[in-house]
Specification:
mainly beta, OB fold (Dihydrolipoamide Acetyltransferase, E2P), 5-stranded mixed β-barrel, 39 strands
Length: 711
């Protein structure tokens, strides 16, 4: 095999270039091809550019080497014959050379036992760019060859003398389904590398150029895409920026090999890298949007909408509303030295409540109104840092009083069962069923905080009302000895880590307690007397999984079964020491921050999921915190020690799996109905979030079985 020094010497003798010049060209060519080739391959391309004779290439067919498993592969093989499914397609790369342009296209191939990065060259790569080879196809490769990639990982390459054949008459169940690799936009909550996802374009961005610190010019463009519930931004950088304008509103996109990053407010964004492949896989007919650009100083008609009907797909709306609570005006200085002001407030109509952000002179316009019904035109629909809808004033926003039309004096009350986190704000009421003890905690900066909660039931469902720090005073002002009925106005809707909706009190929230219960709620039974320190018990219904209604959602059940499998995932996360939610680490790795409580000292929280079988059916179960510790036998301190020892997440998971699978457990938890995309169809599946776990004795199990047989 020719080594790199022989190639450099031949190129130097033919061209007169120095070794350093040739090495620089080799490095540049490798960078141009995103380091998908090694020094020898780059040298061959350079030699061809300069017409350097390297001898007649070996074009004869290599002896065929059939590979039954990727585990048989090693660098330096040729004539490789292997079959597999295309799990992922990366962006094709076009490069220049003397006499024309070249093309290569990386894919991820899985043979049923493992996956390998596979590089298609020349006409083979063109099959990707022309959409002849697609994700999910099962293909056979002949006359391929192996080599070590830039990171030392094994790669498979196939060039012009190779053969690619699409296989149709083959057992598909031996290969993984690429659809299972797609992560829903709704569950993106951390920084991830090389993920696949999909969504529908609902909003187009614009191209922005900027200057970097090194004096070079950068470009960025973005799109907003929507999943089942939330909207995320996908960002295209530099040479990929113009790609954002290939697509139109309503296009359904498949995004392969992108990175997830958190913006300055902690919201996940999808970032396209040089290898990310974004393709259109369909199109949805969406209602047309009004123009997104309004000439300065002009007014235009925007759609009139009820607050409940406003969604993240809207761009501009007009509303008929009344004023709710207001924040103080905050003044700020712009980069150009001018001053601005901003204030947040609530507005409501007869269908719902939402937040409005008032900019600059619109603050004084808004202040001229008191209890009147107001027509507000030309409001821009935006998403807050919590991915909730809010309306922003613009230079073209117009306020006017409506005569002859009125909105009710008080904001409407939402049914608890219909709470939607995207709406952000809600007013609820219900029977007081539970009150937790208000407790103090210490922050990492030495200061102290408070937290308290209570539970309401309104006939449609139950929800927890949570108060932090100064908002705890609103709970302390209520006489719980005489209070039976609670009304909460302008609370923030938040989804907890178990997927349940909660109401969090904020600075503008109001909470009122009453002894009298409204007639429409009198049929709801009080579970028990509420005390200052006690919590009401939860009723768990003993059942078998086969007896569960397919529509059951929010039911609390008790079931006995065997953990037959743990799902492969990181078995822990770093959580806030106060609220237990996931925390973010700074780029330097020295600080951790909670979106709710700022800088904190993180703690390790266990989070394991698996499959439970009770003999009548199976269900996915998730164990958080203490329940996870009881199941696996590993405490959070044990996990922390293993992390400090340098064990990987996979190694930690494997130890947990060995300790957990096969255990018979008695579980008390809450059923949650999840919506998922399966084979391009929307399906609902039930999961069980574990509250309590114990290991029943054989005697207990036999007694319960005997009792069932006697019934």
């Amino acid at each position: 095999m020719t080594n790199i020094e022989d190639l450099i010497q031949k190129i130097s003798q033919h061209t007169g270039l120095s070794r350093a010049d040739i090495k620089q060209k080799i490095d540049k060519k490798k960078e141009e091809l995103e380091f998908l080739i090694n020094d020898i391959a780059a040298a061959h391309i350079i030699a061809k550019d300069f017409n350097v004779p390297l001898g007649r290439p070996d074009t004869k067919k290599q002896p065929e080497l059939t590979i039954k498993s990727l585990k048989q592969m090693e660098p330096g093989l040729s004539g490789v014959n292997i079959s597999g499914v295309i799990l992922r397609i990366f962006h094709p790369i076009e490069f220049t050379r003397e006499g024309g342009k070249g093309l290569l296209a990386p894919i991820l191939l899985h043979d049923g036992t493992d996956s390998i990065r596979t590089i298609l060259w020349g006409m083979k790569a063109k099959q990707i760019s022309e959409n002849q080879l697609q994700r999910g196809l099962i293909i056979n490769l002949k006359q391929a060859y192996t080599k070590s990639g830039r990171t030392g990982n094994l790669e498979l390459h196939i060039g012009d003398r190779g053969i690619i054949k699409i296989l149709t008459d083959v057992k598909k169940d031996i290969y993984p389904d690429p659809k299972d690799e797609i992560i829903d936009l709704d569950v993106l909550d951390e920084e991830l590398q090389e993920i696949d996802t999909k969504g529908t374009v609902i909003k187009l961005g614009r191209l922005v150029t900027f200057n970097r610190a090194d004096g070079t010019e950068g470009r960025v463009a973005n799109l907003h895409i929507k999943g089942q519930r939330v909207t995320r931004r996908i960002v295209f950088w530099d040479q990929r920026a113009e790609e954002a304008f290939i697509f139109t509103r309503g296009d359904e996109l498949l995004i392969q090999g992108a990175n997830v990053k958190l913006d300055r407010d902690g919201n996940p964004e999808i970032h396209s890298t040089r290898s990310t492949y974004v393709t259109k896989i369909g199109h949805k007919s969406l209602p047309p949007l009004e123009e997104t650009i309004v000439p300065e100083g002009t007014q235009r008609s925007t759609p009139m909408k009820n607050i409940e009907a406003i969604s993240s797909e809207d761009e501009y709306v007009s509303v008929k509303v009344k004023k709710g609570p207001l924040n103080d005006i905050r003044e700020f200085s712009r980069k150009d030295g001018s001053n601005g002001s901003v204030r947040r407030a609530f507005i409501f109509d007869n269908t719902g409540v939402t937040a409005i952000v008032l900019w600059n002179e619109t603050n004084s316009d808004f202040d001229t109104f008191k209890d009147q019904t107001i027509l507000i035109e030309n409001l821009r629909v935006s998403l807050s840092k919590f991915q909730t809808i809010e309306l922003h004033t613009t230079a073209n926003t117009k306020f006017s009083e409506l005569e002859g039309e009125s909105v009710d004096v008080d904001p409407p009350l939402n049914d608890i069962a219909t709470l939607n986190p995207e709406k952000g704000i809600a007013c609820v009421h219900g029977i007081l069923q539970n009150k937790s003890e208000i407790r103090e905690f210490n922050r990492s900066d030495g200061s102290t905080g408070k937290v308290g909660s209570l539970t309401l039931e309104d006939g449609s469902g139950t929800t927890r009302i949570v108060a932090w720090n100064e908002n705890v005073l609103k709970l302390e002002e209520i006489d719980f000895q005489t209070t039976n009925y609670i009304k909460v106005l302008y609370g923030g809707i938040r989804e907890n880590q178990e997927g349940q909706n909660e109401i969090h009190l904020n600075f503008q929230s109001e909470i009122q307690g009453f002894s009298d219960i409204p007639s429409e709620l009198q049929k709801i039974e009080r579970k028990e007397q509420i005390t200052d320190s006690g919590q009401a018990s939860i009723d768990y219904i003993k059942t078998h999984l086969a007896e569960l209604s397919k529509e059951a959602d929010g039911d609390t059940i008790e079931v006995v079964g065997k953990v037959i499998r743990l799902f492969q995932q990181s078995p822990y996360y770093w959580g806030c020491s106060i609220c237990k939610k996931k925390v973010d680490q700074s780029e330097e790795g020295e600080e951790w921050s909670c979106r709710e409580h700022g800088k904190v000292d993180p703690t390790i929280r266990l989070r394991v999921s698996g499959l439970l079988d009770d003999g009548t059916g199976t269900i996915k179960v998730t164990f958080f915190g203490m329940s996870g510790e009881i199941l696996t036998g590993f405490k959070s301190g044990d996990i922390k020690g293993m992390v400090e020892e340098g064990k990987t997440d996979d190694q930690i998971f494997e130890e947990m799996r060995k300790e957990s699978e096969g255990k018979t457990v008695q579980i008390k938890g809450r059923i949650q109905l999840r919506t998922q995309e399966v084979q391009e169809e929307t399906v609902q599946r039930q999961e069980l979030s574990v509250n309590r776990i114990q290991f029943p004795s054989p005697k207990t199990l036999s007694e319960e079985l005997l009792a069932e047989l006697q019934e």
